[in-house]
Amino acid sequence: MAEQDTETGKDKESKPAVTRIYSGIQPTGEIHIGNYLGALSNWVRLIPQYDCIYCVVDYHAITIEYDPAEMPHAILDTALMGMACGLDPEKCTLFVQSDVPETTELAWVFNTVTSMGALERMTQFKDKSSQHQQNINAGLFTYPVLQAADVLGPKANGVPVGDDQSQHLELTREIARRFNHQYGDTFPEARTLYSPAPRIMGLDGQHKMSKSRGNDISMKDEPDAIRKKLSTAFTDPDRKRRTDPGNPDVCNIFSLHNSFSPEDQIEMINTECRSAGIGCVDCKKMLAENMIAEIEPIQSRYHDLVVHPDEARDALKSGASRIKSMVIETLDEVRSRLGLRTTV
Ligand code: AQP
Questions:
Q1: If you measure from the C-alpha of residue 339 to the centroid of ligand 1, how many angstroms do you get, rounded to a whole number?
Q2: CA-wise closest residue to 80 among 299, 340, 322
Q3: Do 189 and 324 share a domain, yes or no?
Q4: What is the CATH number of the domain that holds 50?
Q5: CB distance 241 to 58 below 8 Å
Q6: Which is the closest atom of ligand 1 to the Cα of 161?
Q7: Residue 249 lies in a domain
Q8: Do 170 and 135 contact (CB within 8 A), yes or no?
Q9: Looking at the structure, do residues 66 and 131 belong to the same domain, yes or no?
Q10: Are residues 255 and 276 in the same domain?
Q11: Pair (160, 65) in one structural domain
Q12: What's the whole-number mean pLDDT along residues 15-34?
């Protein structure tokens, strides 16, 4: 039997080992527990294993309507919350996408090896265009091409993400293959490293938790706000009365217990819910307290970091400078492969 990849659980085949990983987060609103479980906490976990590059992707964030006056605050705030969650700039590279504008040149090159058909198949484009019907712009359409340049500029060969990004990552590999085929071996085929919590559902139980859908618990929410939000959250739809047995397998609250609660409590709920020994109200109360206990130290680190924004800005600048030299090196190679040289 082929060796299994510890991250993806899939066969390793003969692919090269992942050494450098890249992932990004948009400064489109307050970071929520879906981002925390699906991205940030996983990124922190991976720091000792890889050369980790994490980015606040502001160029991506301008593909939807936003307030330019608010953007500088949103960018810094996203980075600060990332640091509070454990993205220590001493141990990983943290930077802001627009501080390395060279990446957009690579995206232009990648546009020329990306088929329109492939972009038209992207479900995120379909979702975002239905969410933002007044502003279906070309940047929203070519978003995955810029994402490919984000990953391949520093030649990352692994990308930790939630399952909403798997199609984009497949396209990143296709772009690398096409480029390599047309112009010679240049880029790695970056592997998708799925997060242990690849899809956290929103409190509505209908859509993935998302900044823009208002179905989230923010990492900044106060304890009472968390208790209140959870108290009205969607559970097992077939459990109408307290005396009805529930089914944890289809309950969003139970899946959150899996991320925040201790093993023995998860086991107890799994058993007691099925026999109506515990009701949704008590189950939600337990979850709220466990969630608060995990989030509170992060909030307190965030408050410490907020008072020294220049330290964070310096860390972001030095992160950008490291990535800039990597991307410049890649672009030199790319221009040369493309024949874009004035000297012969
Ligand atoms: N609900 C989720 N469950 C698991 N992972 C998630 N991620 C986002 N939502 C969930 C992961 O978080 C990382 C950064 O996401 P992003 O901010 O760049 O963009 P997004 O996926 O579009 O997040 P939102 O909250 O849905 O933002 P808006 O509403 O602005 O579009 C990614 O790795 C993503 O997988």
A1: 38
A2: 299
A3: yes
A4: 3.40.50.620
A5: no
A6: 33
A7: yes
A8: no
A9: yes
A10: yes
A11: yes
A12: 94
Q: If 0-12 CB within 10 Å is exposed, 13-18 middle and 19+ buried, where does residue 273 land?
A: buried
Mean pLDDT computed over 82-103:
98
* Residue 216 counted as domain residue: no
Per the CB < 8 A criterion, the answer to whether 280 and 231 are in contact is: no
Tell me which amino acid residue 101 is.
P
Q: What kind and span of H or E run contains 53?
A: strand 51-56
Active site residue 126: no
232 lies in which domain range? 221-304
Residue-wise pLDDT for 251-294, tens only, equals: 999 999 999 999 999 999 999 999 999 999 999 999 999 999 99
**C-alpha Rg value of the chain to the nearest Å:** 22
Q: Are residues 312 and 300 in the same domain?
A: no
- The residues lining ligand 1, judged by C-beta closer than 6 Å to any ligand atom, are 23-26, 28-29, 34-35, 38-39, 161-162, 164-165, 197-200, 208-212
User: Can you give the CATH number for the domain in which 242 is found?
Assistant: 1.10.240.10
Pair (72, 145) in one structural domain: yes
Share of the chain above pLDDT 90, in %: 84
- CA distance linking residue 46 with residue 203, whole number of Å: 28
- 6 occurs within a structural domain: no
Q: In 3D, which of 38, 29, 50, 153 has the Cα closest to residue 93?
A: 50
The span from the CA of 245 to the CA of 233, in Å, is 18
Least confident stretch, 3-17, 104-118, 181-195, 264-278: 3-17
Q: Does 6 score more than 60 pLDDT?
A: no
pLDDT of residue 2: 38
The CA distance from 198 to 217, in Å, is 17
Specify whether 15 is catalytic: no
> Are 225 and 295 a contacting pair, CB within 8 Å?
no
**How much is the pLDDT for 104?**
98
Instruction: List for the chain the helix, strand, coil content (%; round to 5).
Output: 55, 10, 35
CB atoms within 10 A of CB 280: 19
In a domain, 73, yes or no: yes
What percent of the chain stands above pLDDT 70? 95
User: Does residue 328 share a domain with residue 292?
Assistant: no
